[in-house]
Design brief:
Elements lengths: L7 E11 L2 E12 L3 E6 L5 H8 L7 E6 L2 E3 L4 H6 L2 E4 L11 H12 L20 H15 L14 H14 L4 E5 L7 H14 L4 E5 L3 H7 L2 E6 L2 E7 L5 H9 L17 E11 L5 E11 L3 E5 L6 H8 L7 E6 L2 E2 L5 H6 L2 E4 L3 H5 L6 H4 L11 E2 L2 E2 L1 H14 L16 H14 L4 E5 L7 H16 L3 E6 L2 H7 L2 E6 L2 E7 L5 H8 L6
Parallel strand pairs: 3-8, 3-9, 6-7, 7-8, 13-20, 13-21, 16-19, 19-20
Antiparallel strand pairs: 1-2, 1-4, 4-5, 9-10, 11-12, 11-14, 14-15, 17-18, 21-22
Helix pairs in contact: 3-4, 3-5, 4-5, 14-15
Length: 520
């Protein structure tokens, strides 16, 4: 079957079990030619598992896959690609120190064993060499055809997140995909990049069929023609997107009405808890990422930091937590200067941290949930005494936090990396909040999370604020910033442009300031 011949894709009664978990239960779906189907549900609802089955990464325990009403069996991603199905994963699969052309050629080399014919192989096929010039020409042709701006000679490490995503799209299209599966494609994009991607996908849907996995219901409404909703591994709804509001879809996802909380507290903030003075910090390429930055956050106050990605947010978070060298300036936490101190010393001063990369910096994926919950405190009471670890105390802590923070798992001894994104974020938040921090830095705390998880995490942040903890909220989601913050600071090219009170900020005003306009 050639990819160009695909007119319909159908799955029937798909079931997949893992130890202690029924990930997918009797799911049936269909996608026609040129359709955009939004697949939505809470973290852990079974969306990614279902798509991994469709891509040949998992074998279903029950059920069948049909293309053009003919049953197909996928034993590997090569089989799926051969039938014209391609997937862009939430975590990009690119090699940073290779060029765009080399990355796509590498993918072709990996697929060649399962392909009967590869037009990019030279006569030296036995040496598994690829004609890089031919691959490059094909990349340019695909890029121009679909309006995907990609530099085939750029190294991946030089590209922004949005540019890397375009590379993943081009790579998938170069493999001949006519059915695209996109797993949370906007989770790491700026608002501007998101708008560009939605417009691009709308154009592409004239020639391709798309399955669009997302938690952002505004994007679901803007892009998809049909929506399918999973809850607890089961299909609970499918229908036309236009017939249902975002609130309807959210309620079907969670089983209850979802209301993202808004900071309406009249509680006056306390003394300055974090005071950043004339901070200079270099970026990875030696540039001055923070250039005389000044910022104050008081006890019992949430200050939102708004800015387009790449304006110094990551460097600021890393400098405040001791993960990046401070060139000059002061960082005072409750009056104690943290500049030059180690991460361990900064943690001891009462700093909490919810990092941007939850899977890399927030947890140790191979360690259990119970172990991740005590990572920062394993060496002291009540979890150890005189060098001896108390497994009983660690278990009690894990059971308590699992219930309090609604961490959905088969047991606290499973690897933390096996959890959904929302539950990993709950593990991190549970650990940081249970330590009773003086101050918390929360970086993109709901990135890639469903509305139910976002509602829970926002409530936790507001409760922490009401307990007198100072919070620096770093986010590109302007609705999140406006809803939660007492004050909003806008960062541009490593400096704070201006700080607005809760009542002053609008999305339009913030967007203009994020673009460098100071006076509005």
């Amino acid at each position: 079957m050639t990819p160009n011949a695909i007119t319909s894709l159908r799955i029937e009664h798909i079931t997949k079990r893992f130890p202690g978990v029924l990930a997918c239960s009797d799911i049936s779906l269909s996608v026609g030619k040129g359709e955009v189907l939004a697949l939505v549900g809470e973290n852990g609802a079974g969306k990614t598992t279902l798509m991994n089955i469709l891509m040949g990464l998992y074998t279903p325990d029950e059920g069948k896959i049909y293309i053009n009403n003919q049953e197909v069996v996928f034993k590997s991603p090569s089989d799926a690609f051969a039938c014209g199905i391609g997937m862009v994963h939430q975590q990009y699969m690119l090699v940073p120190n290779l060029t765009v052309t080399e990355n796509i050629a590498l993918g072709m080399a990996q697929l060649q064993d399962g392909a009967k014919k590869d037009p990019f192989l030279t006569r030296a096929k036995r040496a598994a060499k690829l004609d890089l010039d031919a691959v490059r020409r094909h990349i340019v042709a695909i890029s121009e055809h679909y309006g995907l701006a990609v530099d085939p000679d750029a190294y991946i490490w030089q590209l922004s997140v949005g540019e890397q995503q375009r590379v993943e799209l081009v790579k998938t299209l170069c493999f001949g995909a006519k059915f695209l599966i996109l797993d949370e494609p906007t989770s790491a994009l700026t608002p501007q990049e998101t708008d560009e991607l939605i417009a691009l996908l709308k154009r592409m849907s004239a020639e391709l069929s798309i399955i669009f996995i997302s938690h952002k219901l505004a994007e679901v409404k803007a892009l998809s023609s049909k929506v399918a909703i999973l809850r607890g591994g089961k299909l609970v709804f499918r229908g036309n997107t236009a017939d249902h509001s975002s609130a309807d879809i959210a309620a079907l996802m969670t089983g209850h009405e979802v209301y993202l909380p808004v900071n309406q507290s009249k509680r006056e903030p306390g003394k300055p808890m974090l005071d950043v003075r004339d901070l200079f910090v270099r970026g990875d390429r030696g540039n001055m990422a923070l250039n005389k930055l000044n910022l104050t956050v008081r006890a019992g106050e949430i200050v939102g930091l708004a800015g387009v990605s790449g304006n110094g947010q990551r460097e600021l978070a890393e400098a405040l937590t001791g993960l990046r060298l401070i060139e000059s300036g002061e960082v005072l936490l409750d009056g104690v200067n943290l500049a030059g101190k180690t991460p361990r010393q900064i943690i001891a001063q009462g700093m909490g941290y919810v990092p941007e990369e939850r899977n890399v910096e927030g947890i140790v994926p191979t360690m259990s949930i119970r172990e991740n919950l005590v990572l920062k405190d394993i060496g002291k009471a009540p979890f150890s005494h005189a060098g001896l670890i108390s497994n009983r105390k660690i278990d009690q802590n894990a059971d308590t936090l699992r219930e309090k923070f609604d961490i959905r798992c088969s047991g606290v001894n499973v690897a933390a990396g096996s959890l959904s994104g929302g539950n990993i974020q709950k593990v991190i938040l549970a650990r940081e909040i249970s330590r009773n921090p003086k101050f918390l830095i929360a970086v993109y705390p709901i990135r890639g999370l469903d509305m139910g998880a976002a509602e829970f995490i926002h409530k936790q942040l507001l409760a922490l604020r009401d307990q007198g903890v100072g919070i620096l909220l770093i986010s590109e989601e302007l609705e999140e910033i406006i809803n939660l913050s007492d004050r909003i600071a806008v960062i541009f090219k490593g400096q704070i442009q201006r700080t607005l009170g809760r009542g002053e900020a609008t999305q339009r005003k913030l967007g203009m300031m994020m673009a460098g306009v100071k006076e509005i």
